[in-house]
Amino acid sequence: MADPRGGSTGAGAILPLTILSVGFPLARVSPQTAGGAEQVLLSLDRGLVLEGHRSLVLAPQGSRCHGLLIPVQVPGGSFDEPAKREARRSFKRALEHALARFSTDLVHMHGLDFDHYLPEQQDVPVMVSLHLPLSWYREDALRPSRPNTALVCVSETQRRSAAPDVDVTAVVPNGVEIPDVGSSHGKGSYALMLGRICPEKAPHLAIEAAERAHTELLIAGTVFDYPEHRQYFNAMMQPRLGQNVRFLGEVGGERKAQLLAGAKCLLIPSQAPETSSLVAMEAIAAGTPVIAWRSGALPEIVSDGRTGFIVASVEEMASAIRRSDMISPEACRREAQRRFDGQQMLSDYLGLYKAMAREANTPELWAA
Questions:
Q1: Domain match, 28 and 147 both
Q2: Is 89 inside any structural domain?
Q3: Nearest to residue 229, comparing CAs of 69, 78, 61?
Q4: DSSP class of residue 233?
Q5: Residues 43, 162: one domain?
């Protein structure tokens, strides 16, 4: 029997899936991106292609991916409320058009505002990865009335924060690519902070801690065009930049890997209830200890005293910077291989994709 998606349905056949991944309307998807949600999307996109499935990615124009990019033109300039509304409308139109054009097994949504552009077509399964603190989502978004819609948390800490009436289908911990030990670099004398430049990530606290520890600090990341982010950078960071505190801007790819591998430690002074931390996983995988605030899921990722230190003040962070050479790079790498391998994340998501596709389509089309 011929399969409507073009695959073989012979005995034991495993049909290729067509997955349409939907990013956040105001964040490009590319290897240079700083956002965790975009990194996860890109990792799954690459994994799907390598596994022989079809990956479609709906993302802002200028994005890059391994599968087929469906680019969406969104407003430029400041990310104010009118721009957000227009970007959501553009995403909704593009998503409906894509579903009409492509035979899709599942839509995987990654944006904070996903509920504004959920598909009207109700027979296509939708999976939503909740990358951010659940309190940041609209209450109605976490209680979708649309059928065939599954919510996935990215850590046990995040799942425990869900209200009793929020139906979480699964927990799929994030993962990262584990570099070869042979590609590791020698350690430098600098501390590193890497991520979005905004109030809740609190890079000013990393600056204060590095100054107290008399340690050079490199800060890499993106200042997005939200008014509050620009104001924060101009008021809290720019005046303190100098010879011992340098801002590198956005980094990615090999440059990011080199910075992580060469740092004496990675600082994460985040004041947000973090749901996960890809950069912490990447640092540990590179053999670099992580010094992180006791916030959200960070204590779930950083093993205090073994792969870094969990702190609760600037003074504790400064002390941990001075003690960071006590942490074994080899122990960090072993922990990352055991806990943070991105291949496991891909396998977990593929299992969920196949299960939801089976429920939504004729079961006999799928191999056991």
A1: yes
A2: yes
A3: 78
A4: I
A5: yes
**Position 179 confidence tier, pLDDT thresholds 50, 70, 90:** confident
Q: Residues 128, 148: contact at Cβ < 8 Å?
A: no
Domain that holds residue 306: 181-339
Confirm whether 97 is domain-assigned.
Answer: yes
| Cα 54 to Cα 315: distance, rounded to the nearest angstrom | 50
Are 216 and 189 in contact by the 8 Å Cβ rule? The answer is yes
Residues 147, 198 within the same domain = no
| Model pLDDT for residues 185-197, shown as the tens digit of each residue | 578 999 999 999 9
Scan for tokens 């799907």, then name that residue: 48
**Which CATH number characterizes residue 87's domain?**
3.40.50.2000
Burial 180-191 (b: 16+ CB within 10 A, else e): eeeebbebeebb
Q: Would you say 353 and 105 are in contact if contact means Cβ atoms under 8 Å apart?
A: yes
Write the DSSP assignment of 100-163 as a string of letters: HHS--SEEEE--TTGGGS--S-SSS-EEEEE-S-GGGS-GGGGS--SSSEEEEESSHHHHHTS-
How far apart CA 1 and CA 246 sit, in angstroms, is 62
The answer to whether the pTM exceeds 0.90 is: no
